[in-house]
Amino acid sequence: MKKEIVFLLKYNEISASTRQRFLCYFPYIDKKINIKTNILFDKNYFVTKILNNRFPLLKILSSYFKRIIFILSLAKNSKIIIQSELLPYAPIFLEKFLVYKKIKYIIDLDDAFFHRYDQSSNFLIKFFLKKKYNYIFQKASCVILGSHYLRQQALLKGAKKTKIIPTGIVFSDYKKFFFSKKEKIFTIVWIGSPTTSHYLKKIFPVLEEFSKNYKFVLRLVGAHNIDTSYLPIETYKWSKDSEVSLLSESHLGIMPLENSYWEKGKCAFKLIQYMAAGLPVIGSPVGENRRVIKHGVNGFLANTNEQWFDYLELMYKNKKLRNKFGNNGKNFIKNNYSIEYLQKEFQKTLNIL
């Protein structure tokens, strides 16, 4: 009889977290394991909430009801993997049900979701949910984390077994674009959803100053809510079919971040994508960025506006250095952050259940 593992996912394949932390591994999973998935929020919710930043209350309530029914229908001794949590902003009644039914689970996190509770400015949320993840981590068979900061926090909250598996990329998808023709105008690229595009504003003054001296284009892939007349911006809707080519045609990838609790848990996936596409990178020295960027080897860590400007200028002027950083980064990602490399560790983790 085949072993069955149920993946309780937050979103479908439109979400980078779902694709890169779960779906990309499915072709590698032992054929003796039967894979079943349950998705909390569908594509329509993701587009409405994440891409258009609207709050679809009825859709949320419907999704919660369906998830509750699914969990209650799980057989005793089922084996499951949970993406993030069963129900965001809900008490741990479902988690307690899993423990009662002796259902073993692995929890996977690629963001500091627990800080939405223990660092919340809302008194009620903080009071009722600040220790939610303590229970989730303590009862989990294993906690998979996308960054070292997340692992540190999981251990502090009582996780008994942890494993770091970065958010990886399918390297073969990038390999075919290695020799893409670069844009004629120096192109700085940023990829991400509209909900994270506010990080770019951190370096808008730098880019504005840079535009006075150098001709460039800021390419935004996935963000469409930025309105500025003083920067040369081009925007593209995100598409799985075009994202790699849009990155590969660019000259430099950037990842500015703020330095707060939430950002410390970030897994540097933008940098991983840029570097897989052969781009040199500049990023803020926050969270996992400090591990992915080898300063002066595959990119630069920029902490101040002056550093951001200086590194942008150096990358603009020095094509030889761009190529060197790009090649170094590409090899680094292949050997440390590719799904082809990480899949063995992912499969070993499944054996815990």
Query: Helical element count?
Result: 17
Average pLDDT works out at: 93
Question: Can you tell me the residue ranges where pLDDT is under 50 for at least 5 consecutive residues?
Answer: none
CATH topology of the largest domain: Rossmann fold
Corresponding CATH architecture of the largest domain: 3-Layer(aba) Sandwich
Overall domain count: 2
Taking Cα atoms only, what radius of gyration do you get, to the nearest Å?
A: 21 Å
Largest sheet: 6 strands, parallel
Assign the structural class, choosing from mainly alpha, mainly beta, alpha/beta, alpha+beta, or little secondary structure: alpha/beta
Write down the secondary-structure element order.
EHEHHEHEHHHEHEHEHEEHEHHEHEHHH
Q: What's the total number of strands?
A: 12
Strand order of the largest sheet: 2-1-3-4-5-6
Shape: globular
Distance between the termini: 16 Å
Which characteristics define this entry?
353 residues; 12 strands; alpha/beta; six-stranded parallel sheet; single chain; Rossmann fold; 2 domains
